[in-house]
Amino acid sequence: MQALELSRATEVQVSTIRVSALHALAYCPRLFYLEEVEELYTQDAAVFAGRRLHTQLEKQEDEEWEELFLESEELGLRGRLDALRTRDGQTIPYEHKRGRAHRDENNQPQAWESDRLQILAYAYLLESAHGITVQEGRIRYHADNVVVHVLLDEAGRLKVKQAIQQARILRQSTYRPPVIDNERLCARCSLAPVCLPEEARLAHNREWQPIRLFPEDDERQVIHILEPGTSVGRTGEQIKITRRNQPVETVPARQIGQLVLHSFSQISTQALHFCAAQGIGVHFISGGGRYLGSFDTRQGSIQRRIRQYAALSNPDACLELARKLVICRGQGQRKFLMRGTRSKAKTEKLEKAIAQMKAVLKQVPQAKSLESLLGYEGNLAALYFSALPDLISPEVPKELHFAGRNRRPPLDRFNAMLSFGYALLLKDVMNAILTVGLEPALGFYHQPRSQAAPLALDLLEIFRVPLVDMTVMAAVNRGQWDAKADFEIRGKQVWLSELGRRKFVELYESRKQESWKHPVTGYSLTYRRLFELEVRLLEKEWSGEGGLFGQLILR
Asked: What Gene3D superfamilies is this protein classified in (predicted)?
């Protein structure tokens, strides 16, 4: 019986609309859709400031305040009132806002439209749930210390009903509403980093000059657990790291963005649950430097993945995206080789490879199938890796030179570094895909032939050159590697030693902190942020806002 009652309560909650959701709807239908349908929520400084205001009110008010949760199945609404007061026999709902009131042409304080709908909805809900007459609701704007009265009349009740109906229609839709025209609202929206309204406007109008609403960097740490036998657990709101023969280390969870467990380190179930709740990515790398997998904590609506399935089930759409990807990677490789021609040591082989790659790249847009595209990509890769050794300084020891790409296992030190770097890169791309909520197993170019997720392999191509190839080449030419201490030789196989892995992780994470000005949006972001931005731009390709994906080409 209790289970039936709980089930009934849940059913009613699903069928009713939150009053705060109507506030979002009046602010921006796309915001409503992202929160209510795709279940995306972010908490910016304004959200926390609003919470602090309510906490302060509870402490400061001398009068008796009553907080009330209401639900009306008949009206289709539910919500929690900020406060309820009785004045002259009238019951009055109150809403508190941290900001300033809207001013009319006579400079008189008025409610903003979204606030007006919200307090009307609370007043109407109070009437419906308690069977009483409510004549008005009041909004107190704390920034200018004014109270605005909003009358609940028939027009107000009709406005609430129409909003509920619009919300129900949107909740059933599989299509995300377009970006609104008023960009000033976007600048104050906490979901702008997810919605990317400026990028959507740029996609429709290439003359648009977007402002950066996307955060420049994720300042949380990426913690690599490199020591075998280390255990990771939870203590309170902190992550506890216990290494052999070392003091226990604790790190506040809010300071951690990712935990990367290398080799035979362990993590407890409690810590995994905690990481999932805190939005901390958990990834696993083998002792040999191979990416093993990630803890998938995706939650929320399936709508994003339904749109992905629909788009990537279309062969033409996949081919078009794959062409962009091959051009992006091939152009990046060619531009990297061109940097070698700026020095006096440029070689004929280097110049020849650059010219041949240019010719192949011209043919890529005409590729009629993924198979023919694979052929072009293979030609580009062969030309690139054949000329790559010419970028290595003559002063570099012979043991660290490069004579061609090999892997599984790597047969020389240079390839050992490339393979480990690509594993770390795959981990970061996967972290971004899971953060955005797409399906890693469904890509548009790579096919599901191995355990590696095709979409992650697709996106990996964009970042190989700037994050791994350039990092390895720069470190080799700067003489940062010890051919003996940083590597382990096992027969023909070559691996990074623990010292070498530690050094590489430091170089790689340092490279991720560097900023790069996006060639299309025109604003700068760290590479750490560019992972997520590129995944979100990919999603826009099948959301009617495409044209920006795959443009991260080395200058």
From this structure: 3.90.320.10, CRISPR-associated endonuclease Cas1, C-terminal domain, CRISPR-associated endonuclease Cas1, N-terminal domain
Give the side-chain half-sphere CA count within 13 A for 367. 28
377 annotated binding-site participant: yes
DSSP SS3 for 127: helix
CA dist., res. 298 & res. 39, Å (int): 11
What residues does each domain of the chain span? 17-195, 226-295, 302-541
Work out the angle between the directed axes of helices 154-172 and 29-36 (0-180°, nearest 10). Answer: 60
Q: What are the CB-based long-range contacts (under 8 Å, 24+) for 515-519?
A: 515/216, 516/466, 516/552, 518/551, 518/552, 519/551, 519/552, 519/553, 519/555
User: Which pLDDT score, from 0 to 100, does residue 111 have?
Assistant: 94
Beta bridge partners of 234: 239
DSSP 404: S
Six-digit token string for 531: 């992972």
Q: 549: which 2 tokens?
A: 């994906």
CATH of domain 302-541: 1.20.120.920
Q: Is 395 annotated as a binding residue?
A: no
- 36 carries a ligand binding annotation: no
Structure tokens at 310: 């629909």
Each residue's pLDDT tens digit, 220-230: 999 999 998 99
**What CATH number does domain 226-295 carry, 3.10.20.580, 3.30.200.20, 3.100.10.20, 2.60.40.740?**
3.100.10.20
Composition of the chain by helix, strand, coil, percent to 5 = 50, 15, 35
17-195 CATH choice from 1.10.600.10, 3.90.320.10, 3.40.50.150, 3.40.109.10: 3.90.320.10
Q: Which helix (H) or strand (E) holds 93?
A: strand 90-97
The 10s digit of each residue's pLDDT in 13-59 is: 558 999 999 999 999 999 999 998 888 876 555 555 555 555 555 55
Q: Is the pTM of this model over 0.70?
A: yes
